[in-house]
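Final report, results section. Input specification for complex C-07:
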Amino acid sequence: MTAKKPSRLSYLTTGIIKENPTLILMIGLCPTLATTTSAGDALGMSAAASFVLILSNVVISLVRKVVQPSIRIPIFIIIISTFVTIIDYALQAYQPSLYRVLGVFVPLIVVNCIILGRAEAFAYGHGVFDSFLDGLGNSLGFTLLLVVMGSVREFFAVGTIFGKVVTPAWYRSAPLLFMIFPPGAFFLIGILKALVVKFKLGK
Amino acid sequence: MNSKSWMVISLLITCLLAAFALSEVYAVTKPKVEQQKNDATKLALSQVLSSAQTFKEVEKDSLWEGLDQSGAKVGIVVRSGRRGYGGPVPVLVGLDLTGRIVGIKVASAAEGLRETPGLGLKATDEPFWKQFLGADSTVALKKDGGTIDAISGATITSRAVARGVAEAIRKYAEHLKP
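Structure output:
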């Protein structure tokens, strides 16, 4: 029992920093680049993706013993797309303004590499609780990066974070507008990746 | 059970369960989704024609008659969408019975406007759209021989709004003339 505890905790923590899905494994870049134009939108996108990731991990882990390897991918995709459609309907009904901003990226969660990646690499071979922890950890890692990117881009391009004014008026009259455009996203993720590499090599 | 038939059956069960779950969620959320759409439309309509209490849809998603409390017609709201830089620029124009523009609303980014942030998106700012109040069907940008100041750096968006407004006025005339 004592040996099991730290490994369980590590299921949760590896996804956050050490194997951060987006920054280290470089998967799921599409939504990371496209939906981080503001901190609020980034948080909305990560919440939707996290919902799908955690629940699909749990369900796939539940059914893993009866799913034959040769048809596992279609079954994973059906499970994942069911949760995506549920969150799609829910956003339309309860968060219409967020839904309009995220637009096509909500249905595209179906093909988010992180979710199928976790299903395939983890949930298909681990128990329900461990899969839940793994899903939660990866969700937190994804959310962390998205919110950081959204905040930085919003800060430079609009002068606000989560819609709150944090820069003087002279800055907001001539902000670094390009950060909100796609090149700004590539620029920022390049810098973040470079920092990670430097940090890792430095150790 | 052999493995081939279990393959088929397990896939079938998964699909059935998924379909069942989705139809339940759909049934729960559908009225709410419809209501959200109606609320959003109603709010936008009353912003451009504040004298009206209720709105009657004459042409789906493009023409409404505004009615006051007694049910008398007080004006018309037209939606038009001319092509801008990133897609159609949806404009709601409210006109009173004399054909004067009393309100105009350019859809915000959250409502589907796909113009460039910082440039074309400024079409939703008051200094720009206010110029259209009281305009007639000859409305155009200064560059095109009219009186409207275009947003600097966003001529295409500005032109789309101006043409959308002109189109709305023409549509209004067509609607009133039987």
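Residues 21 and 27 of chain B are 10 Å apart (CA to CA). Chain B is about 40% helix and 20% strand. This concludes the modelling results for the funded period.
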